[in-house]
Queue: 2 jobs
Job 1
Amino acid sequence: MQIFDPTIFPILAADGLTNGAVYALLALALVLVFAVTRVIFIPQGEFVVFGTLTLATLQLGRTPGTLWLVLALLGIAALMEAFSLARNGQARRGLVTVGVAALLGVGTWAVTDWLAPLKAPLWVQVILTLGLVAPLGPLLYRVVYQPLQNATVLVLLIASVALHLVLTGLALVFFGPEGSRTPAFFEGNLTLGQVTLSWQSLLVIVASAALMLGLYLFFERTMPGKALRATAVNRLGARLVGISPSSAGMLTFTLAALIGALGGVLIGPSVAVTYDSGFLIGLKGFVGAIIGGLVSYPLAAAGAILVGLIESFASFSLSAWKEVIVFTLILPVLLWRSLTTRHIPEDEE
Amino acid sequence: MIPSQTVPKSSFRLGLSVAAVLIALSLPLLLPLFQVTLLTNILIFSIVVTGLVLLTGILGLTSFGQAAFMGVGAYTTAVLTAQMGWNPWLSLPVSLLVTGLIAWFLGLLTLRMQGHYLPLATIAWGISLFYVFGNTPALGGFTGLTDIPPISVFGLELTSPRNFAYLALICLGLVALGAQFLLSSRTGRAMRALRGGPLVAEAFGVSAFGLRVQVFILAALMAALAGWLYAHSQRFVNPTPFGLQAGIEYLFMAVVGGSQHVWGGVMGAGLITQIREQLRDILPGLLGQQGNFEVIVFGALVILVLQFARQGLWPLLERLLPQEGIRILPQREKLSQRARPAPGTPLLSVQHAVKQFGGLRAVGDVSFDLQAGEILGLIGPNGAGKSTMFNLITGVNPATSGQISFMGQDISRRSAGQIHRLGLSRTFQHVHLLPDLTLLENTMMGGYARGRAGIVRSLLHLERGEEAALQHEALRQLERVGLGAQAFTLAGNLALGQQRVLEIARALVADPTLLLLDEPAAGLRYGEKAELVALLRKLREEGITILLVEHDMDLVMGLVDRLVVMNYGEKLAEGSPQQVRDNADVREAYLGVDMEEEGAA
């Protein structure tokens, strides 16, 4: 087989590892979101797309459509919040909420509008991108998922698929049908004996690893992290000790959006991202997450890296079939899961 | 004996149905040609969605892969007719067979698992199949296959959209009718019961996994039929209409229309297809660019429907129509009855039963026997292992070691359904009823193991004799427990006490030798408890043996013949109520004090 050629193998492996690292980030986000909120978060990949394409738009010195989405969602979320507060007889707090949201909106708009045409340095644009995409997480949670908090996993899944379509359609409206790449953070290659690795790939791998370490510390050492873990273990129990499922959900979705946007910024230089790439990118994270049974973080990350490697080797030898290979991989995994998971005849939900 | 409201007048509803059929039949002639093509598509999509209603709405399994199944049907017929010159009528069974086999294989892989793995697997399957179609040169790649011959009926080639619309209409009519028949059958009730989890369904002899696989295949076959129609109506196939996007839209149609109603699915198919047509005209102009922007509206629509009308739009419409009553069928055949064992013969024997959960020994070496004709009470403080014992006997959990035998057979390793078929019937500590169904239908669920009609006979409505026998048996049991007058009310409208009694009626329809009651008096008021005691006494006199797990001491002491007391997973005492009452260990376990301090209780 040609892929075992010593000149080709390291290139494919490095490529697979780079993409696998980003899939691993997504897999972690997916496991986190599912564990805390029971939402199978199909739109995770859309955060990646919004991350890359927002940055690409800023590169061109234009205002990204992401801003309008943030503002619209902020408005809807504030009205929903105010309405539910008013119904509980807290009309004053409702008004304050709307006021604060309006201030936030104007602020976001002013900053973006000021920075966008300046073609600021790359790192400023990256921060602005993260600042625009990350709020999508909690806002979407408030608008779409919080009203469905008590629904079944399947209803939440259908809502996720619907949200995925909405975001894909909006991405087409905002960014157009063409694919975009963002500039590399570092140029040049690193040569280690036989292996040549671009600095960019190395950055992706290191940044992903650092983010995973950060998440680990967050969940092990901080109070909000522990609260999320408690909610994941037992929703009712967490509620009884004063952890609100809504704020746990918001925090989770913020993390998921942030991870997605970072993934988009990292993957942008190596992959041409179009408005509809998110689904396949997210789904590859999913295959990894499913390998981890949607519960285990290390297994999910390892599974996602495996997906990246398989995809990379498959795209070299059988490029037309690479999607088939990646997604057919899920079937033996499911078979293995169904044979090892004990069937418990308890009430589901 | 049959309550008077058996046959509610639904002539208005019948009239509406006739009118709907007439309108449907005249539409292909009256509409402009473009609209007829659209109508044909809606009819074909409705067939796919009907399968989804059964799978998702009724059984609670979600599939995004229906479009892919449709694609298998379409491509199979395309290859056989366009490339190999087969007659379309001969390729139809092959299309169905191929799709059915694939569905069977996928079902075996995924249907044993928790609900959310199936949709994920169907997403993967939908994407993979799309690329398989697109990358196989023999299937025409992404451009597809052309020159598919038309279907001919009695020598008439269905080349005009108007003719074809009638074929699609007939197919949808048959599929929808079959689905309605299925829903009003024994299998349909089992499907509804499975929705909330396998516990109840399996306790009445339903094989949860088997039924899921069957319905999954049935839904796939409906999609394959739709694919066959689609291929011969378009006369060419390409991968796009069978991709994941289409699979998602079918699910949306079911959700928006109302996934628990066959007509909801049809309504959803019509609504989404029409909206798509309209939006395709409007949106690109509005946004100043080309693209399929209608997905934004669809997605938002689905989220709104889920938030504000989770049952879909059809139930809102149906509320305006007169309610459809259940027709009581004339009884022609009788259900076979079990021979009752003579009073005093050993019925159930538990020998050294042990249940270990990891390091926790929930039941440790418990033995007792139960003779036909007696009421045995199983009591003990919280955490004594009563419920675990109950699960061991009913086959919900297998014992770690020891032997349990019932009717002379070792049941230690049998499934809940197999044990049920030997004559053991149970109720649940937390009431498990279907609140949206009538008492009658809930009760009939208990007779599942006494019927034999499978999914095919149910679809074809060939099980009416058996259905009638089940109806009459259920009415008899409702009468027996004193709920006969409310046979046609919805179970959700009953008070908790009555719901518990309804569970007993449901268990009785199974014609049990042994009735296991899990805390039947929990949450009951004083008067309800007295009625329950009277009912259980009556059942004993009628020859039914009862094993009762209960907390209420007064109720137990006045009712049972013998008692087994458990504490910390072990058997503490056994004997008549008087013996148990006098037992020092029992007093200590319950009251935690010495006899001397306690004084006369």
Note: The longest helix of chain A spans residues 9-37.
Job 2
Amino acid sequence: MNERGPVAVPTAEGEAKEDETREDKAREDRVKGGGTRGDEAREDRVKGGGTREDEAAKGADATPQPPATSSPRSDSADPVKALLHRHRALCERAVDPLEIAARLEAHGMTDRTAARFRHRDVFSLAEELYARVPRVEETRTPEREVAGAPDALTGWTVLALLPGALCAVTLGGAYLTEGRPRLVTAAVGAVAVLLGLRASLHRGPSHARRTRPTGSAGTATCWLLAYALCGDGLLGAALDGGPDGPWPLATASVLALALAWAPATWCAGLFAVRARRGLAASRSLGEFADFVRPLLLGVSAVFLSALAALLALCGAVLHEPVAHAGAGSLGALLFLARLLIAHGCPRLPAAVLNSAATFEAAALATVLIGRLPGCSILTVPVETAVGAWGPGAVPALACGPAALGLLIHATRTLTRATVHTTPLGTP
Amino acid sequence: MGDAHVRIGLITEGGYPYASGDAGLRCDRLVRGLGQHEFDVYALSRSERQEDEGWVRLPPQVNRVRTAPLWTAVDDGVRHGRRTRRRFAEAYGELAAAICAAAGGPVAPPVAREGEDDFGDSGLSGLSGLSGVSGVSGVSGVSRVAGVSSVSSVSGVVGARGIEADRFGNALYALADLARDEGGLVGALRSEAAVRALERACRAPGAASAAGSARVPDLLTVAAHLERSLRPLSLDWYGDDGLGSVDVCHAADGGAAALPGLLARHFSGVPLLVTEDRVPLRTHYLEAAGSTPVRALLASLHARLTAEVYRQAACVTAGDAHVRRWQERCGANHAGLRTVRPGVRPSRSAAPADLADPYTLVRVGRIEAAEDLDCLLRAFAEIHGTEPRARLRVIGPLDEGPDGAAWIEDCETVAGKFFPAGPGETEGVRADGGRPVSFEVIGAVCGAPGLVEAYAAGAVVVLPSVAEDVPGNLVEAMFRGRATVSPDVGAVAEVVGDTGLVVPPHEPMALADACLALLRDPERRARLGAAARARALELFTVEQNTAAFHDIYMEIISRAPVRRPFVDEAGEPLPFAVPAEAHVPWRWAQQPQSVELVPTPKSGRTGEAVR
């Protein structure tokens, strides 16, 4: 112990340069110990304050010749070549010399080892390796697009049929019952449809992943649907001075809208998947936008034709006239709003839904207020519109321009790459 | 000097006040060891779980603790107007251009910016024994030449790198200013405008080729990472009631913690001290994943950020020479670099009791790779063949407890290949029979009682071949006075010095021979153990660590004091409260002996000359 004391002191600080270099040399010997460097080692030991322990350690390391996994042949003209062969993949993949240095160090390379490759330190060795190995463009693995697809397909595609099915069952029940049970059935059915819609909203592509759905948008949607069910009849009755007793309900439109939830969800899913695939494949943001714009228009067109077909079908089955313009524009509005909210742009859709609901409520209100003395002028616009195009004109005027506005907004926002990424924080 | 009172802003990332922080113990010892100073702790938390686990007990010298999450960022909902949007796009574009610029990399040598009171240059130059004045003038001379006209190629390169570094720094500070003035930076960083600016920078002429091949998903990944990295810009820590009021910012572990310190220096001129026991940049390289453009851009981002931190820091400390080499490589200024060895445990530990079983090898630490275990067992098979009484105890993993049973099972399976549990193998080995290799899990961190006993129980301690900066296991074994056999990775050779055997990594024969040599020679074992303990007591005690930081605080305060206006009780500025000499960023008199400025803030004066 006592004779060891003074030996340890010079290495204690490790701050002065000279000490460090000397220490390095001593260490290098101790580490390597291979037969090739025997002479130099002895020399260093003499001048570098090496100790008996060093010597012993060296002896211990040196006796067997380890399988030369990392020692290059010293007579070779190019000692780096073997190293280069061994770490070729690492070097080809590296983005700068420091990465090679970091990975070499993780493999156990130190400055002492680097000295055997005739380099001052690991950094300069890494620089040589980086310069000598050509970079390889790695083949891209399409890992993004498949993520999340398998489990999604089973759940939400079936769940999307739920609102339509519930609505059909409710209508069937209401058709078969009379009086009070009919009312109960209708009320329970309405709640069930809304719950089914809600359940479907929380799964699949319509689920708003990035932002919490705004409450006002939900209320506005409920109001718009309620108006689609009974608004036209109520407005017509009100214009005729009523309503005197129950007015006709547009069950076919609502059934078609509920059934259209399934194609809407499927279209949204198709849009999301195709857009993400396009994202992975596109080289620039402009290219991506050019890819998404026709996709969005195409998906909207597919949905609209599906909705039109459903409207016609429901009208035929229920023997009921169908307001194609009103229900169609409402369906388009809801589809686009949901698409935008699901992709994290909830502000404008919520505002547009609110304004459409307000428009419809205002149309009803003006007709009712117009009955007050002196306010008859208020009913003129609604009367004119209904006179020209029928009661379906109000929802068509409320939702049509709104849907068009949302479509224009969507072609600008949904073509951004940022809305198609998974939110930050979740993989 | 001992009673000077410094207010230190300790910035930690996922560390100190949280109970589960990995660097927590180190900071706790530092804070407790420096009771004469005041600490304001600014902590960035890494995960929600960490926040839920609560804090450690804080000593009275901790004035206040402010925390902020780094794992999430809440958009404050501020929508920028047209002018602010343009301002953001300009700053972000500059930042992106600096990141994408070709042939950058972190190899830029430290270049002093002119016309600035460069604490790093003039301040600590005396510390490392260099002639501070000549060093400073030499460096700034180069930059002056380069700034005026890049005539020679060398100065041209240096100048270009300096400009590049300036560009990154300026863009960073522009974003920080924007966040402070207007808010809403989180939303802006996530916006399409940011991605578009990044794309423009990648396609610009002069961008690196890897950046040029970035596709849209790459751009999105990089933009998201940038947003995460720049979250400290949106913090409200930099006011006069926050980091602006401290005397020194101490970023306790580089990486993300250094950024708030950098901004405090930018906003309030508070000198920055950066401590790194491991190299964050190296960790980043090892963990980087993704396509080539992503890795290239992120590497560039981190390298530039690191370089800017080193450039602005008044002092950068490294845990060992290995870290120091990386810091120098990444542009840290020689003059402001110091090595402060981590304090692993208090020196009052009892002298090692001689409990050792003379034939037991103890190997402590998690086994990272299968080849590591393979190498160890191969070596031990060799030892066991020569010395049948030898036994091996493998102890781990130390950090994550829950998978301990699975870990043991895995290891047993591998060990079964080397030492089949047949009767022929076990006879004559031990009275109780069984395999000569045993695996144990001792949970918790270094210093758990079971672990200390485990170290003491072995005659020789074998270290894992995992590149670790200042391996705690090794130092612990040295404190226990045990002879060690360690593979030559990372800072091992520097830590162990002459007091243990160092073998090439991944070479079982060398390992076996070193162990055998020690097993056969008890006297040498004892001598090495005693020397190791003496070395550990000299280098790795908490006291030396605390004292070193105390000195650095004093040094920084004296060289680079924060210049705040002195006001009287009524809030009126006090003229002549600070002597004119205090504003001189360098020493006028070039004397062979250094003159130290010692602050005595309590008495109202900023400093006095003491020889």
Note: The radius of gyration of chain B is 27 Å.
